[in-house]
Model the fold of this input.
Amino acid sequence: MLLPLGKRIYIATLLAFILFNDCEKSAALDLKPNIVLMLADDLGIGDVGCYGNNTLRTPNIDQLAKEGVRLTQHIAAASLCTPSRAAFLTGRYPIRSGMASSGGYRALQWNAGSGGLPVNETTFAKLLHQQGYATGLIGKWHQGVNCDSLNDHCHHPLNHGFDYFYGMPFTLLNNCQDHKPPELDAALQAKLWFYTQFIAVAVLTVLAGKITGLISVSWRAATCFAFFGLLFFASWFSSYGFVKLWNCILMRNYSITEQPMKLERTASLILQEAVSFIQRKKHGPFLLFVSFLHVHTPLFTTEKFLGKSRHGIYGDNVEEMDWLVGQILDTIDKEALRNNTLIYFASDHGGQLEAQEGTVQLGGWNGIYKGGKGMGGWEGGIRVPGIFRWPGILPANTVVDEPTSLMDIYPTVAHLAGGTVPKDRIIDGKNLFPLLRQKVKHSEHEFMFHYCGSYLHAVRWHQKDSGAIWKAHYVTPVFHPKDAGACYGKGICPCSGEGVTHHEPPLLFDLSRDPSEAVPLSPDTEPLFHAVLKRIDEAVEEHRSTLTPVPQQLSFYNIVWKPWLQPCCGTLPFCWCDKEDGSGHLVG
Done:
């Protein structure tokens, strides 16, 4: 039966519109999009409005979620800065690259350490650079600087695929801000103290021997004593400001621009650099990684936001960071880049519960999730915000409840750039693009492994046919006080030793029913208890069979301060320079 003319015209128009829309999307996908990755530091998932917070103002991040895809089970590969960011950059569990420690120090401690992201790792920046992208990193790095000499820059961002770097090669410490208690990893400080005491005894013995003529001192021994004397100097006198001079610096590419950095203007400098990069590279394609210093302690907040939130200086810091996000998004819009730019926002791990100053909370809120920063398996330390936006390509106001990982960014951006991931190593991340576009229902992740340093603390099993998300905890930290949910007075919870509890059988939860991990399951409450643990144990064995020994980047030797690797404006130890005019432009 022939349809009336009006209906035929309507159907033809509708089909033409659908065909045109599909062609338009296909054409957009054929073009390499600009990619802007924004990563907060220590931001809790419960700190953001679109994840349930109704007392902090995060309108720009919330709007990003309305215009894009919000992930509710976005998981960091580690609950601490250095290993988490290594996994983010490489798409690999940090244990594969030697960026997971078996000692008490689980992150890089000095700009002048020799550890860092290995030169044989291939970051997403390097992959995109090979595809013709301009690549920039603005903000925090914390993946090392040098290996053997002051100018080898083996771990530097420019040696890992970034064309341009402006920011902090290290991370914020209390030492970066005046009138704060000095901060150094407790385990490292204890070990430095042991070594310096040992060396002090050795020096006294040698001197006594020389005086009595029993032994002589060679130039090598003298050099050795001088070196350990400098170690003693670094550990003992750090509280007098040298850590600030040595670690709290800003760099542009290989050059130091501020030593020490002036925190009161750092946020505006980082914003200006991000905006400038977008404007310079707007003809694309470009990759910009904005790695915020917010909201890591010490909390520095400009006058415009100070005292404006309902949660003290931490809330002020969160709201300022949201404003920074908004300014970057506004720049994308002003440069007419909105429709061909993929935006991503996340945090490197959960908020630090132990960060306090008296009764004032300086760390984040992890919502309904147990635990926080530094804890290997509890959700509060590893479940983070994750938001994507690409207008016209990704659906707006969409929520994805499938397990995803920060490591997934690696294969996802490689795919969008037209590149391929390396075939000579295991890549643990999965391409998220089909899931983000709602072309598939389930994440490719079946098992996810949650490490604390190099110790496996927990495993997640996404049983897709049933919808269950099982989580087995083999090891958990001992909270202090017992029911506090954190390790107050200890900085962060340890990964091993007397500070943890080993569980046999493991604690088992179904996160689809108990996301807060409040009540462990038992054979009496869960008929599949033994079958689930058996399958998880098998997955652990399969996973461990894929691990190979690699050099440990966070060994004591690699993380300890080495004077010959210290970036310095001037003469060590009195390093100082200010090459900024306060507006982000180099002077002279």
Remarks:
- Residues 16-24, 584-588 have pLDDT under 50 and may be disordered.
- The longest strand covers residues 500-510.
- DSSP finds 14 helices and 19 strands in the chain.
